[in-house]
Amino acid sequence: MSNAVRKQDTEAPPMPGDEGPAPALKPVPRITIHAFCEHPETGGAIQRAGEDRRLAKAHLTVHMGGIKAAVEQYQTNGTPNLILVETKLGGAELFVDLAALADVCDAGTKVVVIGHLNDVSVYREMIRQGVNEYLVTPLHPMQIIEAVSRLYADPDAPPIGRSIAFMGAKGGTGSSTIAHNVGWCISTRMQEDVIITDLDLPFGTAGLDFNQDPAQGIADALTSPERLDDVLLDRLLVKCSNHLSLFAAPAVLDRDFDMDADSYESVLEIVRETVPCVIVDLPHVWSAWTKKLLLSADDIVITATPDLASLRNTKNIIDLARQTRANDGMPLVVINQVGVPKRPEIPVKDFAEAIGVEPVLVLPFNPGLFGTAANNGQMIEELDPKGKTTEGLRFLAKQLCGRQAAPVKSSSSIFPFLKRLSRKG
To answer: How far is C-alpha 222 from the geometric centre of its chain's CA atoms?
Structure first.
């Protein structure tokens, strides 16, 4: 057990239930984690943590039996990178067991103790004796994820930026326009550094929306992700304002773009190390890399229009997020282009009931405003700084910079097809 005492270790461990919004954490590297629990509830929480996107590369195994089972196993086997052990003991008995565990641990193995005593003096003594972290039951999976991430994060590395993935429920919903304008609002209103990454390589519109025509962009990074560093990234980015930069798509059809999911992930990890906020503008395609980037983002924004295809696709994405992102907030839903003349529409109330999530923003159909902005290469706020649409986009930007959305329970709808969709999944 290594004795890595940090400043926060001199304070009491966090109380359960104080998790708050999920922080932007670096993914844990490819390590092996063994957990030895005394209660099934603790094992269940650790197992759910192991299924989280931030621990996707780690290999986790959960055993029962507590510290004594761990000591018995490691008398004849090597220890993993990290051991989580649960104990109900306190006082001298606890430290006798921990000493026995220390005797069988290989050099470099880290140990996290999960206890039932919220006692600062016990916590400090454990840290003094070489325990890396102490958590108090009952546990939330995010407590485990944060503890493991802290143990393997470089203390000298800058904080990793939040990634916000925008995807349209179908083509033509205006997802990219919403993404670009929200990025603009975050950079101008909150004075936060933002990079917009346009991942629609053949058809991306970020360059057009910001009136830019860069010679290089994100495709150059994706073709050789191993070459990307701070210097090259700075050359490839287009600076749109003091706080906003653009990683533009080439938007050409004479090249094939067949990069794998790992290339996209590697590039985004480097981008996230340079700014506090990264807007990930995803195209409306479903492939291994879009699915991976969508589900691994810190926040998801789905832009839909009030029609049946959008409703079905939005519900499918939300259901997938519920299954795979149990420790994250629900995706935010924007309903765009409401009120198109003579077009039959699903009422917003019924749309919300069917997907089980209340839309965070409803934008009326306003072709004049959005069309003029697109043709001029301007943002909505530049054209109409006091308009209702601008206010809505600013509200969405604020929500994304500190929200924790709660899902809304679905209820029955007056439309039969909405009832069927509500029962699916």
So the answer is: 21
Contacts of 348 (CB under 8 A, 6+ apart): 306, 335, 338, 359, 362
Find the helix packing angle between 141-152 and 40-50, rounded to 10°. 60
Report pLDDT digits (tens) over 230-262.
888 888 888 998 899 999 898 888 777 778 888
> Is residue 195 a contact partner of residue 271, using CB atoms and an 8 Å limit?
yes
Taking the C-alpha atoms of residue 27 and residue 116, their distance in angstroms, rounded to an integer, is 28
Look at residue 129 and give its three-state secondary structure: coil
Residues in the chain: 425
Element (H, E) at 219: helix 218-223
Here the tokens at position 100 are: 């026995």
Phi, psi dihedral angles at 195 (to 5 degrees): -120, 125
| DSSP-derived secondary structure letter, 395 | H
Are 192 and 355 in contact by the 8 Å Cβ rule? The answer is no
Q: How many contiguous H segments (helices) and E segments (strands) does the chain have?
A: 17, 13
Q: In order of start, what are the domains of the chain with their CATH numbers?
A: 23-152 (3.40.50.2300), 162-423 (3.40.50.300)
pLDDT in tens, 300-358: 999 999 999 999 999 999 999 999 998 888 999 999 999 999 999 999 999 999 999 99
CB-CB contact of 87 with 38 (8 Å): yes
Q: What is the C-alpha separation between 30 and 244, in angstroms, rounded?
A: 33
Residue 309 Cα to chain centre, angstroms? 26
| 53 C-beta neighbours (distance < 10 Å), count | 17
Tally Cβ neighbours within 10 Å of residue 376: 12
